[in-house]
From TrEMBL:
<keyword id="KW-0812">Transmembrane</keyword>
<feature type="transmembrane region" description="Helical">
    <location>
        <begin position="490"/>
        <end position="513"/>
    </location>
</feature>
<dbReference type="InterPro" id="IPR035595">
    <property type="entry name" value="UDP_glycos_trans_CS"/>
</dbReference>
<dbReference type="GO" id="GO:0016020">
    <property type="term" value="C:membrane"/>
</dbReference>
<dbReference type="GO" id="GO:0015020">
    <property type="term" value="F:glucuronosyltransferase activity"/>
</dbReference>
<feature type="signal peptide">
    <location>
        <begin position="1"/>
        <end position="16"/>
    </location>
</feature>
<keyword id="KW-0732">Signal</keyword>
<keyword id="KW-0328">Glycosyltransferase</keyword>
<protein>
    <recommendedName>
        <fullName>UDP-glucuronosyltransferase</fullName>
        <ecNumber>2.4.1.17</ecNumber>
    </recommendedName>
</protein>
<keyword id="KW-0808">Transferase</keyword>
<dbReference type="InterPro" id="IPR002213">
    <property type="entry name" value="UDP_glucos_trans"/>
</dbReference>
<dbReference type="Pfam" id="PF00201">
    <property type="entry name" value="UDPGT"/>
</dbReference>
<comment type="similarity">
    <text>Belongs to the UDP-glycosyltransferase family.</text>
</comment>
<keyword id="KW-1133">Transmembrane helix</keyword>
<dbReference type="InterPro" id="IPR050271">
    <property type="entry name" value="UDP-glycosyltransferase"/>
</dbReference>
<keyword id="KW-0472">Membrane</keyword>
Amino acid sequence: MDRLFLLSLLASTLSAYKIVVFAPDISSSQIIWNTRVSEKLAEAGHDVTMVRMKFFNKNSSEVVIDPRVNIWDFHMADPDQDYEQMQRKHAELIYQDRPIWSGEARKAMNLWMGFMRNACENLLLQKDLLQQLSEARFDLAFTHMYEYCAIGLIHHAKIPTWIWLNSGQLMDNVADTIGVPKPPSYVPPMMSDSKDEMTFFQRTKSFLGHGLMPLLYPHIVTWPETEIFRKHIDPDFPYLGDLASQCPLVMVNSNELYDIPKPTLHKVINIGGLGMKFENAKPLTGKFKEVVDKAEDVMLFSFGSVANITMMPFEWKMAFMKAFERFPQYQFIARYDGRDLDTVCPPNVFLGKWIPQADLLQHPKTRAFITHGGYNSLQEAINAAKPVVTVPLFGDQHRNGRLAEKHGFGYYLPKTAITEETVVEAIEEILKDKYTTAVKRMHQMVKKKPVQPEELFLRWTEFLAEFKELPNLVPYGTKLGFVQYHNLDILAVLAAIVLLVLTVIYAILKMLFRFGRWILRKISPEKIKKQ
């Protein structure tokens, strides 16, 4: 027996891989997602290190992490970085109705990307961290999709293979880079307020958005970060876009069952819901247990960890409070860390700086969830089989809200339409049986999906770690230029041929017309003489 145990232990040790996860420490949700990934790998027996990439001067997200996961902190922010200013600008922007091409939006984006570029450069100046990364001799790396700095680190550290990872759907810039087709007629940009069924105006925006992204993104992100590596590492450092295009595998926290049906590649693995367990709510404790026990029914109200809800316009806050007051039979539990609502908060509204969102959603008394539409919140609602009212603020939240609406378990409330009456209308609508029926069906489909995300995640990770490269999954389209990819050269030749044919036909007709006129002139005088 001891011999068998030692043999099995030796076999598991030999099959374990040394894996690093580059986690962007930009929000609690990002750290939670990367912690799930790291812990799943550690549970499978792998030697896992999570690198928390601290892009900003802010307090780190407090997340309990399995002690089997090693933690490295990479401090990358400028000492004089004004993170609070960026947060204020972000909050001001998301609670307004500004298009992404507006001056304010572009300023906020430039500020964000400037912070990320400076952080990347600051990291490359810390030679001890680069040496630590190289000497660790990792077998495989995971990295995020927000910028390309970690892709350069993977190449510099000579990590033999890697996986591109996202906490949400496949990002448009990544789809462009790896060669995923995006027909603008029914696949809207990730940041757009559209479903797959679009109006003429929406299709126009989709066409322009998809057309501009592959032209603008390299100039905003990829080339500037490449130049940083060429400045501090090697003048001949490869273009980061070329390294990214040959990525062996891409994993996204999405699911075919509730995403938009669209073209994809074999190398894109959907692991939506990874680490979320069904019917696994922890018992409520303290004030939350007391509030829920007294309630007949419960509704949740939360805008996540990124959107600072205290900076919401006061008229919006009052619209929600007055609307909630009109449903005295429901206990509303809201995540809110301000004090300005203490005197106007209705008796059926409980405000908490933090709420156990997943546990409350899975409680049998909870009827619905009012959310900003973050992908993690949407998945937790599906996991708990609770319908949602989405009030999207920024980013992919608009599309997430439309997804819930498309599948029948969500009501979409535009932020520009928030009033007491529209909030009341949204609550009355979401309490109808059809929404609960739809989300329960989606819940069962996700639960009974033939292959669960944990299995896909581990099997593909270990498969890649063994074979290192998967060039047979890289489409040749990544090597084509814009003209070739869209067959513009063929269209130009065909157009030239058509034009040539039309020109020849025109010339022949013109010649026949002139010949006919000449014949008529010859015949006419002879007829006159005979007469």
